[in-house]
Design brief:
Blueprint: E1 5-10, H1 18-29, E2 34-39, H2 47-58, E3 66-70, E4 81-86, E5 89-94, H3 100-103, E6 109-112, H4 128-141, E7 165-167, E8 170-178, E9 184-189, H5 190-197, E10 205-210, E11 213-216, E12 218-219, E13 230-234, E14 239-244, H6 249-253, E15 260-267
Parallel strand pairs: 1-2, 1-3, 3-5, 12-13
Antiparallel strand pairs: 4-5, 4-6, 7-8, 8-9, 8-15, 9-14, 10-11, 10-15, 13-14
Helix pairs in contact: 1-4
C-alpha cells in the first residue's frame, strides 16, 4: 500500500524551526506519511501568492493527497480553520481564500475544524499550523472523516478576483505571479479560454493586451520570436504567460502582480471543403 502524501506550503521560510516542527507533528500522528515541502518562501501574509502556488502544484499529485497550506495572517482571530475534500484530494488550512482552487470545485465538501480532540495541546494562539492544521492533516491520512473535525461550512471565504471574466468579447484577468525568470503568469487558464471562446479555442488567433498595451498573438514557444521580443504563450502551468524572450519582462517593463491582462479573438480558422 503506498504511503499517504502530505504536501506542505507556508510563508514560514526555512531559517527558523517552524517548518521542522510541523513535520514533526505530522509524523507523530502519521508515522507512515510522506511529507513533501511545496514552498516555504511565500511572502509573509501573501494569501493570493500562496493560493496560486498551491493551485499550480496540486494538479500533479495523486488522488487522496492531503495539501497542508499555512499563510495565515489572521491566526488567533475568529477566522475559521478548514478541511476540504475537492478534486479527489484533501486541503487543510485557514479560511482566508488560501484554498481558493479547492473551493472553486462545485463538488467541494468543506468542514470547520473545531473538535479539539484532534488538535495538539495546548493550542497556541500564534501557531495553528503546528497545533491544528498539522495534526488534522495527519489524522486525515489515517482515515478520519472530515465530519469528525467539525460542522459543514457553506460560506467559506473566497479569494477576490481569482478568476477571469468575459466582458464585451474579451477575457479579462490579471497577472497573478512573477516567476524567477521574470515571466508574468496570469489567471487566464487554457480551461478558461476554452470555456470563453469554445472547444476549438486552441485553433483561434488571439490578441493579447497587458496594461492596455498590445502584446501580440499567442506563440507556441519562447523560441517562436527573436531575442528581446515580448511573447504570450500557454505555459507549462496551463495558463497564459507573458514573457520577453531572453529577458526579464517584469523588471524591464515594470510588470507586477495585479496588472490587467486581456485576450480576445481576432480571427477564426478557415475551413476548406474537398
Amino acid at each position: 500500500m503506498p504511503r499517504p502524501i502530505v504536501t506542505f506550503l507556508s510563508d514560514f521560510g526555512t531559517q527558523d524551526w517552524f517548518v521542522g516542527v510541523v513535520h514533526g507533528v505530522i509524523q507523530t500522528v502519521a508515522p507512515d506519511a510522506h511529507v513533501v515541502d511545496l514552498n516555504h518562501t511565500i511572502p509573509p501574509g501573501h494569501i493570493a501568492r500562496g493560493a496560486f502556488v498551491l493551485e499550480a502544484a496540486a494538479h500533479d499529485f495523486p488522488p487522496d493527497t492531503i495539501h497542508l497550506a499555512v499563510v495565515d495572517p489572521g491566526v488567533g482571530t475568529r477566522r475559521r480553520a478548514l478541511a476540504v475534500r475537492a478534486r479527489h484530494q484533501f486541503f487543510v488550512g485557514p479560511d482566508n481564500g488560501l484554498l481558493e482552487w479547492a473551493l472553486s470545485d462545485p463538488e467541494a465538501v468543506v468542514h470547520e475544524l473545531v473538535e479539539e480532540r484532534w488538535f495538539r495541546r495546548p493550542v497556541s494562539r500564534t501557531f495553528h499550523g503546528r497545533d491544528i492544521f498539522a495534526p488534522v492533516a495527519g489524522h486525515i491520512t489515517r482515515g478520519v472523516p472530515l465530519e469528525a473535525f467539525g460542522p459543514a461550512v457553506t460560506d467559506p471565504v473566497r479569494l477576490p478576483q481569482a478568476h477571469p471574466v468575459l466582458r464585451d468579447g474579451e477575457l479579462v484577468g490579471r497577472v497573478v505571479f512573477i516567476d524567477r525568470f521574470g515571466n508574468a503568469l496570469t489567471n487566464l487558464t487554457s480551461r478558461a479560454i476554452a470555456d470563453a471562446f469554445g472547444a476549438d479555442a486552441a485553433d483561434e488567433t488571439f490578441a493579447v493586451r497587458l496594461l492596455e498595451r498590445p502584446v501580440g498573438a499567442l506563440a507556441r514557444s519562447y523560441g517562436d520570436a527573436p531575442v528581446g521580443t515580448i511573447v504570450a504563450i500557454i505555459g507549462s502551468s496551463g495558463r497564459l504567460e507573458i514573457a520577453q524572450v531572453g529577458g526579464d519582462i517584469a523588471e524591464r517593463h515594470g510588470i507586477g502582480e495585479g496588472d490587467p491582462v486581456s485576450l480576445r479573438v481576432t480571427s477564426h480558422p478557415t475551413s476548406t471543403s474537398r
